[in-house]
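User: Can you recover a sequence for this backbone? Please restate the input before giving your answer.

Assistant: Of course. Working from this structure:
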């Protein structure tokens, strides 16, 4: 395990512009059923294959300004662009108020409810990614924030299935920033064909989804069994960054 006083590079959150993603399907909604997400698609729309970062907060950490403060931290790297999908006509204050109310009520969209009752989604402004979106869910005493973007915009343009470090760096920077500022259970990353691992399974020793990084506290990490040699662990404030070896250089010596 490596310990550093250092952190993510102090470089700006975004580095360059990239082209649009491959268009495939358009989602109608996400229905939370524990750790299983039922995704309803509409054929003929436009939607890239997604890469996801999942931020898990313990529900007992929720407070009056929680939603607003998390958004504001993210906006320091990627500013607010608009509401999205049934929320295009809402301003930021309306979106914050709506989502805060649903989180306070531990709201979960039921199968027989229209998606207009669900959490309001947010699009972020980005010169680096063509589509960067946030949405909330609640499950089993966890508040989950999802950050999603086109998968092909963070991968190298070849058949290696490896990530482009310049594209991963601002997402890693943001994730460490959120981790060090708030109280989270863990942070997980995964591709379209991957999936997050439930907190219950991680507590049993299963490694959180780490494609290419995850973050967790020391006590949770102690539950991990047989961490593969492909990963490196780096001590950061309040926990550990677990990252694939070939992307360790993204974690810079100087903040």
């Amino acid at each position: 395990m490596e310990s550093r006083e250092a952190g993510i590079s102090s470089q700006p959150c975004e580095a360059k512009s990239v082209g649009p993603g491959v268009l495939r399907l358009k989602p109608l909604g996400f229905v939370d059923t524990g750790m299983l997400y039922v995704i309803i698609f509409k054929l003929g729309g436009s939607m890239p294959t997604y890469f996801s970062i999942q931020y898990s907060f313990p529900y007992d950490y929720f407070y009056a300004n929680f939603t607003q403060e998390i958004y504001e931290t993210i906006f320091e790297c990627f500013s607010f662009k608009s509401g999205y999908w049934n929320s295009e006509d809402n301003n930021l204050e309306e979106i914050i108020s709506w989502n805060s109310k649903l989180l306070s009520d531990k709201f979960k969209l039921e199968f027989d409810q229209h998606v207009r009752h669900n959490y309001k989604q947010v699009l972020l402004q980005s010169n680096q990614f063509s589509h960067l979106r946030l949405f909330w869910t609640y499950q089993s005493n966890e508040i989950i924030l999802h950050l999603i973007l086109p998968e092909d915009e963070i991968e190298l343009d070849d058949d290696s299935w490896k990530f482009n470090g310049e594209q991963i760096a601002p997402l890693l920077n943001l994730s460490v920033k959120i981790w060090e500022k708030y109280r989270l259970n863990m942070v997980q990353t995964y591709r379209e064909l991957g999936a997050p691992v439930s907190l219950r399974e991680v507590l049993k020793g299963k490694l959180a989804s780490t494609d290419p990084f995850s973050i967790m506290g020391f006590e949770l990490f102690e539950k991990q069994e047989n961490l593969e040699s492909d990963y490196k662990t780096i001590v950061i404030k309040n926990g550990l960054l677990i990252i694939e070896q070939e992307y360790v250089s993204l974690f810079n010596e100087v903040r």
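That completes the design. Residues 205 and 224 are 4 Å apart (CA to CA).
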